[in-house]
From TrEMBL:
Cofactor requirements of the protein: FAD
Gene3D superfamilies attached to this UniProt entry: Nucleotide-binding domain of ferredoxin-NADP reductase (FNR) module (3.40.50.80), Translation factors (2.40.30.10)
EC number of this enzyme: 1.6.2.2
Catalytic reactions on record: 2 Fe(III)-[cytochrome b5] + NADH = 2 Fe(II)-[cytochrome b5] + NAD(+) + H(+)
Keywords of this entry: FAD, Flavoprotein, Membrane, NAD, Oxidoreductase, Transmembrane, Transmembrane helix
Protein name, UniProt field: NADH-cytochrome b5 reductase
GO molecular function (one): cytochrome-b5 reductase activity, acting on NADH
Gene: CBR1_1
Family listed: Belongs to the flavoprotein pyridine nucleotide cytochrome reductase family.
Transmembrane segments: 9-28
Enzyme class: oxidoreductase
Domain FAD-binding FR-type: 40-144
Amino acid sequence: MVFTPEDQILVGLAVAVVAIGVGAFYIYSSKKPKVCLDPEKFKEFKLVKRQQLSHNVAKFTFALPTPTSVLGLPIGQHISCRGKDGQGEEVIKPYTPTTLDSDVGRFELVIKMYPQGRMSHHFREMKVGDYLAVKGPKGRFKYQPGEVRAFGMLAGGSGITPMFQVARAILENPQDKTKVHLIYANVTYEDILLKDELDSLVANHPDQFKVYYVLNQPPESWNGGVGFVSKEMIQAHCPAPANDIKMLRCGPPPMNKAMAGHLEALGYAPESQFQF
Ligand SMILES: Cc1cc2nc3c(=O)[nH]c(=O)nc-3n(C[C@H](O)[C@H](O)[C@H](O)COP(=O)(O)OP(=O)(O)OC[C@H]3O[C@@H](n4cnc5c(N)ncnc54)[C@H](O)[C@@H]3O)c2cc1C
């Protein structure tokens, strides 16, 4: 077989195109951040920092395998954490990181530890250098920017973590104009989690993010709500029922039940509500 000069040029061009394609693929793959979570199997992450935030709340920072790795958690979803309770029995509980995939190389959990809590025992015992077994992502919550005009959020205690994650994702995306109205309930002022972070999000996005704190036992000087979250508080501080809003709930079971009742009485359609 005889190759003409034209054939040789064509073969040369084809080789060059393939080489460029292979090169581009390798550059793209090496730049794509490594996703760490596996939905099928527990993976171990090293605790690199533990910061006590109050007598029973601590922030745990875990390292990802490389400084450019991302956890790979869709907004508003959570992870399953596995540990041992005080009797040495295995326990698995859901937690929502307060970090996003834009926080590369690490993820953080803000954990409230209950005296009798089984997984609370595991976290209380964890020291820097220990490993935590984590599986995920988990959860039914899905979010596309611009999907709703506004979110109303009803959070209690550690139920703030998924709300914080969703609010951060919205407010840190300049293209996302969704409004967020959060009512956050706690027993005492000291129980309020992530208060500095929430207040700074409000200060930076005053037209887009509003927070109304509610306390059972408020301090002497207090301009937030008092008691349990009521229908009137929801009417005053959350978007009114409409097709383009969504109400999110996350708190202890009695609070979730009470909030579901309030939302139904106020006329929010079931499809415009979500419980984490
Ligand atoms: C989607 C999702 C995300 C979550 N994210 C977080 C998070 O980021 N940080 C976090 O700290 N928790 C979070 N939680 C709660 C967490 O999963 C556990 O329920 C919590 O840590 C208690 O587990 P435990 O095994 O220590 O307590 P358990 O052994 O289940 O309970 C022991 C006792 O602790 C008390 N208790 C337990 N849970 C609560 C509660 N919610 N409110 C009031 N009292 C309670 C009760 O008195 C109970 O009898 C989340 C829950 C869900 C569903």
